[in-house]
Give the backbone structure.
Amino acid sequence: MSIYTLEIKTIRKALKLLAPSLSVRRGRGTGYSWIEISGSKEWGEFTDEEREALTKVGLRPGANFCVISPDDRRYWVETLAKKLGVEIPEELRDEYRRRDIEKARMERRLREIKERQESCQHEWVKMPYLVLFQEDKSVYKCLKCGKEEIR
Ligand SMILES: [Zn+2]
């Protein structure tokens, strides 16, 4: 099962505890990878109870529409799971943990590169690139730390 599907399932489970008549679906067309929440009235309009339920957990329902963007999916999975006591599937937790580890690794790597560049006794070579819109300038690259400069 994809991460997206697991996220939708978790959010659906949580929101159904709040208001069983809400529907939680994957977005279609250009909304793909979004999560759409709609109400039980005509055209997906929310009843007062549904609207209240969504507002209570911090979502902001429009007239007949409430969406969660791809970037916010994790936030809402974790927030709703915590607020409503729903368990996050293990596969999803593993994925989030994996992303956190990867992010920390990337940050550490960037920090290391920055530190190396700051303490480097640079050895510049002129690169054979043209600098767009600055034809009198060149790209220089340090042979030791890889830092590039335009001057
Ligand atoms: Zn250097």
